[in-house]
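We emphasize that the prediction below concerns an isolated chain of 128 residues; any contacts that depend on oligomerization or on bound cofactors are therefore not represented. The input was used exactly as deposited, without trimming of termini.
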Amino acid sequence: MRAVFTIWNDRIAPVFDVAGQAILIESENGSALSEFRMALPGGTVMEKVAFLAEARTDMLICGAISRPARLAANACYIEVYSFIAGNVREVIRACLEGRLRESAFAMPGCGCKQGCHGRAGRGGGRTG
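Result of the prediction step, given as a token string:
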């Protein structure tokens, strides 16, 4: 699996649409195989999503995200876990352990005890 975590000051970036940095983790069976820090494009959210799709991203972990960005990501078969907050290392660990839905990682004030992660799903399996 290839998961991208948007970052700002060693925390999950509060808003995907304006995030400039991310960490790409490639994992298998709950273990990280590689980690790569990358700059995200500074253009539109559609350019950001296209960049993630080109990087063969399976999962996006971020703070708030606009509806158009979420829909575009889902159309590219990227599962979105939004309204996530916290230290990026703790969130990465929780992701690898399957614990992202814990309330400890819900963005404050999102209105859900477990955040709003993954509600829109992926829209199907990856082809190719």
